[in-house]
Structures are given as structure tokens and as C-alpha cells.
Design brief:
- This protein is about 70% helix and about 0% strand.
- With about 300 residues, it is mostly helical.
- Helix 9 packs antiparallel against helix 10 and helix 14 crosses helix 16.
- It is globular, with a radius of gyration of 25 Å.
- The N terminus is likely disordered.
């Protein structure tokens, strides 16, 4: 059902039937309300199970759509296939996600329900569903609720301004990989020592504040110099470097979101000035914030 999941799913069962469905789907005309009604009316004339009186008393739309889908041999993606990809995202298994994406890129429409007659809106709705399910999957696996829901909000807002199906597909891929990378980082963090985990948690929850190493050391309950050595040994960079990297990553998301000015981002992330932010961003990323906001990559 979900966009990224359909090109990722590993199809093992019924390969011959699946191939037959794909061939028929390519040759069949696109389903519309009129074709659904025509097929359903033909069905009514050949069976006594559904009467006009039944239609007055009951909502027959689900049964109508089910019959049309069966007539066209369309089936939604099996839930076990979707769950297998959810598990990859929750575990942060990026390599496996990339492998399945490459393998099934050519079959991204298979098993996807029609949520809108407009193709672009249909893709956007599938992204919204994907965002909702992936966010809750990651929360269950240990991601903080605020992080998961905020990511979901950001990607749904970005999808709302997409103007092509290709943009939505690319955005959906980016969203899934973003969650997976964060889950991978979260699982690595759980293997760190308690004071380092405490420091990372404090930094992530106070991205917009000007934290000092001493404040973080006090929160972790460790001597300042000892915490700094421990942090660098386990993370591979100093505490100040990690704070700056966290701010830059947050800035990237805010620039892509497009709802904040560069001056606002500099202020919200605790930089002393806009010029300080632009200089730090350019050194870390390789392009200016304005260039990055306009889509230029290093």
C-alpha cells in the first residue's frame, strides 16, 4: 500500500500470478468511476445477490470496488511484505533498504490502492499514509514521539507543495531513509556509555540553546575534562563539534522545509548572528544556506 514499501517488498509468493497481474494492469484502461459502475452493473445483472433494495439500505460502495478489483485481478500488497520493510526501517538497516529499492524500482505501482482520481494527489496521499505508519513504527522501536511526529509533519508539508509525481516519489524515498538513518544512529547510541548518552540526549533536546560543556558535564554527573575525553573516544569528535553538527543538521531540515528565513534559522538554532550561521554552514556543508535552500548540493 505504501509508496516506498511497494518497490521494496520482496515478492516470494505467487510469482506467476503477480507477473500475470502486472501484464494485465499495463494493458487495461485506468479505472474510473464510470468503468467501476459499468462493471458493477454487469455483475448485478448476472447475480441475484445484490438488489436495488439492498443498495438503498446498505453502503455497497466497498463491495462494488472489491468486485471491480477482483475482476481486474488487482490485489493490495500483503501485510507481511509491508511489515518486513517496517522492520528494516525500525532497525536502521540502510543497506538492505537500498538493495530492495534498487531491485524493485521498476514496480512501484504494484499493490497500491487508488486513493484519488488525480495521479499527483494519489501519490501524495500514499506518502501521508507512509509517514503516519513509519512514524509510529519508529516510536515503538525507541524514537522519541516529538522527533517522529515532527519529521512526519515536515515531510507531509513538503509533499503538499510538490508539483509532480516524480517529486513525491523522491520525497518519499528521502523520508524513509531519513527515519532509517535516525534509527540506526539511535541504536548505536544505545551501545554508548551512560554519561555519553546523557550528553547526546541533552544536546538533541536543546539544539537552539547555547550549551556549554560544563552544563552538559553537570547533567551527566561527570568531570568536564573526563566527559570530554570519553565523548571523543566513543563518538569520534569533541562535544563542541557534535553540538555544531547537530545544529547544522537541524538547519538543513529547516532550509528544506522552506517556512523559515535564514535569519530566523540562525536565531532559533542559537547562532550569535546570521553571518556566523552562514559561515559555519558553508564550512560544514560546502554551499551557503541560500544555495542549499534553492536546491544546490555540494
Amino acid at each position: 500500500m505504501l509508496l516506498f514499501l511497494h518497490f521494496c517488498c520482496i515478492m516470494i509468493k505467487r510469482p506467476i500470478l503477480r507477473l500475470r497481474r502486472n501484464i494485465m494492469a499495463k494493458n487495461a484502461p485506468k479505472t474510473t468511476a464510470n468503468t467501476e459502475n459499468n462493471l458493477y452493473n454487469q455483475h448485478k445483472t448476472t447475480t441475484c445477490r445484490i438488489t436495488d433494495e439492498d443498495e438503498k439500505n446498505d453502503n455497497t460502495e466497498p463491495e462494488k470496488l472489491l468486485y471491480v478489483q477482483q475482476a481486474q485481478e488487482f490485489y493490495h500488497e500483503p501485510i507481511e511484505n509491508e511489515n518486513s520493510v517496517f522492520a528494516l526501517i525500525a532497525s536502521g538497516d540502510i543497506n538492505q533498504l537500498l538493495e530492495t529499492k534498487l531491485k524493485y524500482d521498476a514496480d512501484i505501482e504494484s499493490g497500491k490502492g487508488q486513493l484519488s482520481d488525480d495521479p499527483l494527489r494519489n501519490q501524495i496521499y500514499h506518502l501521508v499514509v507512509c509517514a503516519a505508519v513509519v512514524a509510529r513504527t519508529c516510536i515503538a522501536a525507541g524514537m522519541s514521539e516529538e522527533t517522529a511526529y515532527t519529521l512526519s509533519d515536515i515531510y507531509i508539508r513538503r509533499a503538499d507543495i510538490c508539483t509532480s509525481i516524480e517529486q513525491v516519489i523522491e520525497l518519499n524515498n528521502e523520508m524513509v531513509m531519513d527515519y532509517a538513518v535516525r534509527m540506526q544512529r539511535l541504536r548505536r547510541t544505545k551501545r554508548l556509555s551512560v554519561p555519553v548518552r546523557t550528553a547526546i540526549k541533552m544536546i538533541s533536546e536543546n539544539t537552539g540553546k547555547r550549551l556549554t560543556v560544563q552544563q552538559i558535564a553537570d547533567e551527566a554527573g561527570y568531570d568536564r575534562s573526563h566527559l570530554h575525553r570519553l565523548f571523543k573516544a566513543e563518538i569520534g569528535m569533541g562535544i563542541h563539534e557534535y553540538i555544531n553538527a547537530s545544529r547544522i543538521n537541524a538547519a538543513k531540515g529547516m532550509l528544506k522545509d522552506g517556512t523559515h528565513t535564514i535569519a530566523d534559522i540562525a536565531s532559533l538554532l542559537g547562532f550569535s548572528s546570521q553571518s556566523h550561521f552562514c559561515r559555519a554552514f558553508s564550512e560544514a556543508v560546502g554551499v551557503t544556506p541560500k544555495e542549499y535552500k534553492n536546491g544546490k548540493l555540494p
